[in-house]
Amino acid sequence: MIVGLPKEIKKQEYRVALTPAGCKMIIEQGQDVIFQQGAGEGSGFSDEEYAAAGARLVPDAAEVWATAEMIVKVKEPLPEEFDYFRQGQILFTYLHLATAPDLAKALVDKQVTAIAYETIQAQNGSLPLLTPMSEVAGRMSVQEGAKYLEAFQGGRGVLLGGVPGVPPAEVIIIGGGIVGTNAAKMALGLGADVVVLEKNGDRMRYLDDVFQGRLRTLMSNPYNIANAVRKADLLIGAVLVPGARAPQLVTEEMVKTMKKGAVIVDVAVDQGGSIATIDRVTTHENPIYEKHGVIHYAVANMPGAVPRTSTLALTNVTIDYVLQLATKGFFNSVSSNSMLALGVNVYKGAITHPQVAEAIGFSHSPIESLW
């Protein structure tokens, strides 16, 4: 199989889907890699390193898309890439189709085989290819939130950890999964007062044990959310439903009760956002906007700001799936791997993931019915 690696074109996106080491692993298995020049530079990998690994370097994305049987990316294709789609071509990347009906339609119309990192799911419900980026985004949410709490950024002028004689900031985290847990680690490390709202009792017990009572947990319900949001200096949205739009848990009326200069960071913005006033997606270049006196941070590709760390973390978990697809082919890989099968969002012109289909109003066709 020819595996293609185009350069990411999303604004301020510097990650790359394969490292030189990953390319070498694919080539050693008897497959080919075609690589767009410059695609790894943002993550600190030179063209010379990819060439030394055995990849064939080409100057433009069009040749990569036209030649490769499988395209491996980090972020979802943008409209200017839709014309590259080919029937039967495998696309392996983050897709987030629940909030991208135009992309879903393009993939369906061109009959692309689209596999989404974010819906590959283990039997225990974990999302192994989303986990490392959730870890990065969770930790970054506190880092970014602390920055925008500074007065010259428009924030309240509050230091997360306080100082002796001055209380710390109140950090409210909605969702106790991977994002929420990593946000809590960072916030506690900086000395903040941390509350995590979570609806799963077992998860709350886990957080209580892991953090040895250093944070407070609350059952996630409208009453508790409203009370917590009102007190927040930094509010972090950290909820996820695999394949579906994020549930909107914080209403606009709740946001109106927040302190002037408080900060919201919604990590779920790429799945539609969990906070009503997150009504647009921002970029690393212009990451924030103000609404009701509250600073909103709504960057959809947060890990792209730390591309070296993010690329290494992501490729650590994607490479085994890339190798499997490249060496065994799509049918043999998916039919023998139920986790990978859940990652298939589009196949033979149909939406094959039920939550994705429901979110965008398409009909759902189980992949088994399309063999």
Q: Give the CATH architecture of the largest domain.
A: 3-Layer(aba) Sandwich
Please trace the helix and strand order, writing H or E for each element: EHEHEHEEHEHEHEHEHEHEEEHHHEEH
| Residue windows where pLDDT falls under 50 for at least 5 positions | none
CATH topology of the largest domain, anyone? Rossmann fold
Q: How many separate domains?
A: 2
Within CATH, the superfamily of the largest domain carries the name: NAD(P)-binding Rossmann-like Domain
Total count of helical runs of at least 4 residues: 13
Keywords summarizing the entry:
single chain; 371 residues; Rossmann fold; 2 domains; 8-stranded mixed β-sheet; 13 helices
Characterization of the model:
This protein is an alpha/beta fold and 371 residues long. It has 2 domains: 2-126 and 306-370, 3-Layer(aba) Sandwich (Rossmann fold); 131-297, Rossmann fold. It has helices at residues 20-28, 47-53, 61-67, 101-109, 131-148, 178-189, 201-210, 222-231, 252-256, 307-328, 330-335, 338-343, 354-360, and strands at residues 2-5, 32-36, 56-58, 70-72, 90-93, 113-116, 170-174, 193-198, 216-219, 234-237, 263-266, 288-291, 294-297, 344-347, 350-351. An 8-stranded mixed β-sheet has the order 3-2-1-4-5-6-14-15, with helices on both faces. It has a 7-stranded mixed β-sheet with strand order 9-8-7-10-11-13-12, sandwiched between helices. Helix 2 links the parallel strand 2 and strand 3. Helix 1 packs parallel to helix 2. The protein is globular and about 65 Å long. The chain starts with a strand and ends in an 11-residue tail after the last helix. The mean pLDDT is 95.
